[in-house]
Write a structure and sequence with these properties.
Length: about 400
């Protein structure tokens, strides 16, 4: 696991992003709403709403939700606590609050290198501010579907949840005087029924018309063990879902993070879904390392697909074995001229920040300053967010 990040003035990240630098405003592409609300705020939201299982010891709650080496090790274990997080965030009001907290946190603490035990900002000298943020979430998992994931009935109305998320993002942008732009990526669930996912695709198509600069993309997320898309029928149904969500929308996909997805399935998924970006495509590199099979890497390069990398998360789930192996991963992507970006994935539950991720890469020698700067530039280019969401012609783009 990575070393503790430095908080001193002489940090390697400060050397490549000096004070006053034009790179002080950054873009982050891969953040899940469920992992973006600080644990202490989730505690307060749960207590206020009377959620079962939240009102025990605060210390126990922190230990339960904090994703660390002691309670993860693979993707399935990593995702175990998200049921309770999504329940706390269920309903239009809770989703709106969570969206605003996530945006506030990214802007205020994304450039910090140290956080408090509950996710509070703890660095008085942030290196940068995140001014373009993509937040992804599954609205269906905020309807109260915790005990009925394979049904379509939830306690809260999904239309009101999607609208509340879009309005919250818009209101936050206004509050920051256009200092931060936010877009929402709607995730289909590998652990949800096809019926639920089809309903969600229709909702994306509908609400994209009302909020064209807020609903910016679709994704598929969740445990690859439940739906690896290794069967042609399932792959075709997933491709139909992406098309059902409508045209003019960015496409990304979680695929190849675990051994449940083979290199053949990875390739078929990329070809079927035709994404602009892919999250955690570790299987493509491992196939090359272990079997000299470069097909996955060659496909990513050929289609100019941008890879969304989340360093701390990949180490926690065991997708990448060590920070040294992460360096090898980056060098492999560079070898095939594949563009990549760095993000935090679930910053609040991992007690990490984008600055902390970048500094960890630099201080360990896993990434060079040139690789970091290149990745930051890639994020600016690859974002699905409109460059100026408040421009008169933005809705026509």
């Amino acid at each position: 696991m990575p070393k503790r990040i430095s908080t001193g003035k002489g940090s390697p990240l400060r050397e490549i992003i000096p004070e006053g630098s034009s790179r002080r405003e950054l873009t982050e592409l891969h953040v899940h709403l469920g992992g973006s609300v600080p644990i202490y705020r989730l505690w307060e939201m749960g207590i206020e709403r009377g959620i079962r299982g939240v009102a025990g010891s605060y210390e126990d709650f922190i230990n339960l939700l904090h994703r660390s080496t002691s309670n993860t090790g693979d993707l399935d274990r990593y995702l175990e606590v998200f049921d309770i997080v999504e329940l706390i965030q269920a309903g239009p009001r809770a989703v709106a609050e969570a969206i605003m907290i996530a945006i506030n946190g990214a802007y205020r603490t994304g450039g910090m290198r140290r956080l408090g035990p509950g996710g509070e900002g703890g660095d008085p000298d942030p290196i940068f501010a995140i001014t373009q943020l993509e937040i992804r979430f599954n609205p269906m998992k905020r309807t109260g579907l915790l005990l009925s994931k394979h049904g379509v009935q939830g306690l809260f109305d999904v239309d009101r949840i999607i609208r509340a998320a879009c309005e919250a993002a818009t209101n936050s942008e206004i509050a920051y005087k256009n200092g931060i732009s936010t877009g929402l990526i709607i995730c289909f669930g590998r652990d949800l029924s096809w019926e639920v996912n089809e309903t969600l695709a229709d909702k994306v198509c509908h609400w994209k018309k009302s909020y064209p600069n807020k609903i910016i993309g679709v994704d598929i997320a969740g445990p690859e063990s439940e739906l690896p898309l290794d069967k042609q029928q399932n792959l075709e149904r997933m491709a139909a879902l992406y098309k059902r969500a409508g045209a003019g929308i960015g496409k990304t996909v979680h695929v190849g993070e675990t051994p449940h997805v083979s290199i053949d399935t990875f390739i078929k998924t990329i070809k079927a879904l035709e994404p602009n970006r892919v999250a955690h495509p570790v299987v493509a590199a491992k196939a090359y390392w272990e079997n000299k099979d470069a097909r996955g890497l060659e496909l990513l390069a050929q289609e100019k697909i941008v890879c969304e990398l989340c360093v701390h998360s990949n180490l926690l789930t065991g997708a990448i074995a060590s920070i040294e192996e992460y360096g090898r991963f980056l060098r492999t992507l560079d070898e095939f001229e594949i563009a990549y970006t760095f993000s935090t994935d679930s910053p609040a539950l991992q007690l990490t920040t984008l600055a902390g991720e970048l500094e960890m890469l630099l201080s360990s020698g896993a990434a060079t300053p040139e690789q970091i700067i290149g990745a930051l530039e890639n994020a600016d280019k690859a974002t699905f967010i409109s460059s100026d969401p408040f421009s008169p012609n933005a809705e026509e783009q």
